[in-house]
Amino acid sequence: MKKIWLALASMVLAFSVSAADISEGKQYTNLSKTVNAAPDVVEFFSFYCPHCYQFSEVYKVNSTVEKNVPENTNMVRYHVDFLGPLGKDLTRSWAVAMALGVEDQVSPALFKGIQETQSIRSVDDIRNTFINAGVKGEDYDAAMNSFVVNSLVSQQQNAVADFQINGVPAMIVGGKYKMKNDGISAKSPEEYAKTYSDIVNQLLLKK
């Protein structure tokens, strides 16, 4: 099978990761400072980031992790402001998606509009993308400047600062372990996502 490459490093032969195989510096790193009261799993991403596109839409890492984490695990996805001319607008729109519970509905369309068709060039284009994905325009407009969305925007921005995120995609487990995307090798997107998910679950046991 033709190999597909993820993140900034090439992936070689596949291997199976057991609890004994996981080591700090290889599949994950310890943060210099633990962020207390953080969600169990936090993914940081940007719709402008090509690797985030592959992470989400090709490798489907976030959906695989979400499906396999233990019940009652608090997992969130936060958009970062620091990439692209509409970075801050997309962070607010992502907060709208979170408030309306339509993240899975709009995420592929937003990635496509930014990464593939380059059809998203304005805040109106973002709004139209939501509408085309099935969200009512009046619901989008009502949520846009609501207290809940304002709080979610601040929550995302504060988390980026607290975790000192300067590159994406990034996934943090237990407020103190940062996954190393280039520390996992696989022969297929499915195998990569499954191995990644297994490591997240083992780190959840360590927290």
Automatic annotation (TrEMBL):
A GO molecular function held by the record: disulfide oxidoreductase activity
Subcellular location as annotated: Periplasm
Cleavable signal peptide: 1-19
GO CC terms in record: periplasmic space
Record-annotated Thioredoxin domain positions: 6-136
Disulfide bonds: C49-C52
Sorted UniProt keywords: Disulfide bond, Periplasm, Redox-active center, Signal
Source taxon at top rank: Bacteria
PANTHER family in alphabetical order: THIOL:DISULFIDE INTERCHANGE PROTEIN DSBA
Annotated NCBIfam families: PRK10954.1
Family listed: Belongs to the thioredoxin family. DsbA subfamily.
Protein name per Swiss-Prot or TrEMBL: Thiol:disulfide interchange protein
Organism per entry: Proteus vulgaris
Gene designation per UniProt: dsbA
